[in-house]
Design brief:
The structure holds two protein chains of two kinds.
Chain A: E1 11-17, H1 24-32, E2 40-46, E3 55-59, E4 62-66, H2 68-71, E5 74-77
Antiparallel strand pairs in A: 1-2, 1-5, 2-3, 3-4
Chain B: E1 5-11, H1 17-25, E2 42-47, E3 53-58, H2 70-79, E4 91-97, H3 101-112, E5 118-123, H4 125-130, E6 133-135, H5 137-144, E7 148-150, H6 159-168, H7 183-197, E8 198-201, H8 207-215, H9 220-239, H10 241-261, H11 266-283, H12 286-302, H13 304-318, H14 326-331, H15 336-342, H16 349-358, H17 368-378, H18 390-415, E9 427-429, H19 437-456, H20 458-471, H21 481-484, H22 486-498, H23 505-511, H24 520-532, H25 536-539, H26 543-550, H27 553-565, H28 570-580, H29 584-610
Parallel strand pairs in B: 1-3, 1-4, 4-5, 5-7
Antiparallel strand pairs in B: 2-3, 6-8
Helix pairs in contact in B: 3-7, 5-7, 9-12, 9-18, 10-11, 11-20, 11-24, 12-19, 15-28, 16-18, 17-18, 17-26, 17-27, 18-27, 19-20, 20-24, 22-23, 23-24, 27-29, 28-29
Classes of the chains: A alpha+beta, B alpha/beta.
Chain lengths: 79, 614
């Protein structure tokens, strides 16, 4: 399952990231924010007004906003 | 002579660097809460316990030494001593958010590994405690191998200890014996260090996730944001009204008093018609500008601004931008200059350029006086259904026109001149914080001073020059003074160009000095009508009534439409030149905005005439 499909509030761990599909500087930015293999994440908010973008991901004690296209590159598994 | 000691604050965005910088130096600087607020070099003086001064710099927040935005590049270059004309800071003060250690320690390790003198400030430790997190600074110091001081910038806790640590910071050897450490390895180390430093952790239900559930709700969130913006614009207009009226009559009274005091002369006329009428008419808008900045400062300081960016991302994505552009654009409602500078936190260069080019379409506070005087004169003060004032509604529509045009233009630009891959949106949403009254008051004070300084310098000078141009050469008996003057001749020439869109000569006259600062349009009109007044009684008539007597409604509406787009003040052009490294983009900006201003003023005028409003 990829991060964008995770049910709201369910905790998961990032098991793989397909860095190749992301723009290099965006990949770097995500990594800098801690979104990398091994990160424990949960999806806290998804989209506005019926849309599915953007996403708010909780990682540690931080909340990061990102787009669905980024979350799709991240495979998550059960903790 | 010994070289002055220097230090720099470094850390992730939202570590509280700006607040710590303010507390350490007492320097006047804006504190806010969304990533990327510290876009300018901020320098101040910290006095050590020994009395020795240290030059302290506040560097833009960064996630690593490998830059992903122009902001982070500045930080990297300054830290490594590669920034031209900027001496390398001797001591690096790494600022950490105590409640987000495992994230902030990643960059901290990178900085510490440089082997330079480092002091760590474990900041906002009170908020960590609020979240049920108890930390052991000594354990952290042990693990990092550099001094660690616990601080609470807003309560001035730990500041003396931090200053002492900066004074004692010493040279260490760089970790050159170690192989290259990857980001992943640093992250693992960060986790281990953070785990060791945490004494106890109780999972308190945190305030901010509760607030986010409401404020980021897919349906409620956008409604709250728009309601908030609507309230903001209503408050700017209605809330300030009594204060504006008070200032207005005070200035009118001053002009009359000076007239009775001094014998009739040209110098007296310069004072009353030029300076008091001109500068005074601009100063009356101070209350509105203060209210607008109050809202923007509070939104920034509470952390809501980043949520607004989240909520706006979808809309911005539709025109090829991202939610990140929303923050510079909202700042541009106060002034395009800080707005354009705030675009430095946008990583994508095409995105950034587009945001810069549309920033002037956000109605800045300098346009407010022009809108306000015309709305007050031409739009009846009536209440519509639901207690919404008609005047406030018109003001809201003017702001909205700017926003909608900006979106349409962004869409066009992203498909033509700033074509490129669609940009992403990656942004930290900071913790909610109660803004401190002191910080907000300081911010408002700074804005008010800047506004009054402008009124006292640029606007004063332009008004005086305009008055001179309006009064010389003197009119022959029976001839209108404005027609005879140099300014009148210039305006008559320009009036030919703007006549098709319904502008009269007095408006043409106001357009030229408005290039210096938009609000000068108001003082120019005030001066013009004061000069052409047949007698003293007519001078005392308020500007609004003067306008009502001289302009038709379509003309006034066309003038409002013109100001949605133009003119660009010289400061905006200058900052655009600086931020885009050349004259190409400011010239482009100026050209397209004037063309749109002409077109839309014309359309408004013709439509209003056709509807029979005039």
């Amino acid at each position: 399952m990829t991060l964008d499909l995770l049910p709201i509030g369910q905790r998961a761990v990032v098991t793989a990231v397909d860095w190749a599909v992301l723009a290099p500087d965006e990949a770097q930015r995500l990594q800098a924010l801690g979104l990398d293999v091994g990160a424990r994440v949960a999806l806290s908010h998804r989209g506005i007004m019926g849309g599915r973008d953007p996403l708010a991901v909780t990682i540690g004690r931080m909340t990061v906003a990102l787009r669905r296209s980024h979350a799709r590159a991240m495979t998550v598994g059960e903790i | 002579m010994t070289q002055q000691r220097s230090a720099a604050l470094v850390g992730n965005p939202n570590a509280g660097k700006s607040a710590l910088f303010n507390a350490l130096t007492g320097a006047r600087q804006k504190i806010a809460n969304y990533p990327g607020v510290t876009v300018e070099r901020k320098a101040g003086r910290l006095v050590l316990p020994s009395g020795e001064p240290v030059a302290l710099t506040d560097l833009p927040g960064s996630y690593s030494l490998t830059p992903t935005s122009p902001d982070e590049e500045v930080t990297r270059k300054v830290i490594l001593g590669e920034f031209p004309g900027e001496p390398m800071p001797q001591v690096l003060v790494v600022v950490l958010d105590a409640s987000n250690l495992e994230q902030h320690l990643v960059f901290a390790q990178e900085v510490i590994a440089l082997g330079r003198p480092v002091v760590v400030a474990l900041n906002m430790i009170d908020l960590a405690e609020r979240d049920g997190l108890v930390l052991d600074p000594a354990a952290l110091q042990e693990a990092l191998g550099v001094p660690v001081v616990a601080t609470v910038a807003v309560r001035r806790r730990g500041l003396d200890e931090l200053a002492a640590a900066i004074a004692a910071a010493e040279e260490r050897s760089p970790e050159h014996h170690r192989p290259h450490v990857t980001m992943t390895e640093r992250r693992l180390t960060a986790h281990a260090i953070a785990a060791a430093a945490i004494v106890s952790e109780t999972a308190k239900h945190r305030l901010h996730s509760k607030l986010d559930r409401v404020l980021l709700n897919p349906w409620l969130g956008p409604l709250i944001l728009f309601a908030l913006l609507f309230v903001m614009f209503q408050a700017v207009f209605s809330g300030a009204a009594p204060l504006v009226a008070g200032l207005d009559s005070g200035i009118g009274w001053l002009a009359i008093w000076v007239k009775t005091l001094l014998p009739p002369s040209l110098a007296r006329d310069l004072l009353t018609e030029g300076i008091i009428a001109g500068v005074g008419s601009v100063i009356t808008f101070l209350p509105q500008i203060v209210i607008l900045f109050f809202f923007i400062l509070v939104l920034e300081a509470t952390g809501y601004m980043a949520r607004a960016a989240f909520l706006m991302d979808r809309m911005m994505a539709a025109v090829g931008l991202s939610g990140r552009s929303f923050i510079p654009l909202l700042s541009s409602f106060a002034c395009a200059i800080p707005g354009i500078m705030a675009t430095r936190s946008i990583a994508d260069p095409k995105d950034r350029l587009t945001t810069i080019l549309i920033a002037p379409l956000m109605t800045c506070s300098a346009r407010l006086p022009v809108y306000a005087v015309l709305i007050a004169a031409f739009i009846p003060q009536r209440s519509l259904a639901g207690g919404i004032g008609l005047q406030g509604l018109v003001l809201f529509i003017l702001y909205l026109s700017g926003i909608v045009s900006a979106m349409v233009i962004a869409l066009v630009l992203r498909r033509t001149v700033t074509k490129g891959a669609a940009s992403g949106f990656i942004m930290e949403l900071p913790k909610y914080q109660l803004p401190t009254i002191k910080d907000i008051a300081l911010g408002l004070w700074q804005r008010a001073v800047i506004f009054l300084r402008r009124a006292g310098t640029i606007i004063f000078m332009v008004t005086v020059v305009l008055w001179l141009l309006l009064n010389f050469p003197r009119a022959a008996p029976g001839e209108d003074q404005v027609d005879a003057s140099i300014a009148g001749h210039i305006a008559n020439g320009l009036a030919v160009v703007v006549k098709p869109i319904g502008f009269n000569r007095d408006m043409a006259l106001a357009l030229i000095p408005a290039m210096a600062a938009r609000e000068v349009a108001v003082s120019s009109l005030a001066t013009t009508y004061a000069v052409s007044a047949p007698d003293d009684a007519a001078v005392a008539v308020k500007l609004g009534d003067q306008l009502k007597a001289n302009w038709s409604l379509p003309t006034a509406l066309a003038f409002l439409a013109w100001f949605v787009f133009a003119p660009q003040c010289m400061s905006t052009i200058a900052v655009t030149r600086r931020e885009t490294n050349g004259w190409k983009w400011p010239a482009f900006m100026l050209g397209y905005l004037f063309a749109l201003a002409y077109l839309f003023a014309g359309l408004t005028y013709w439509a209003a005439v056709w509807l029979g409003l005039g």
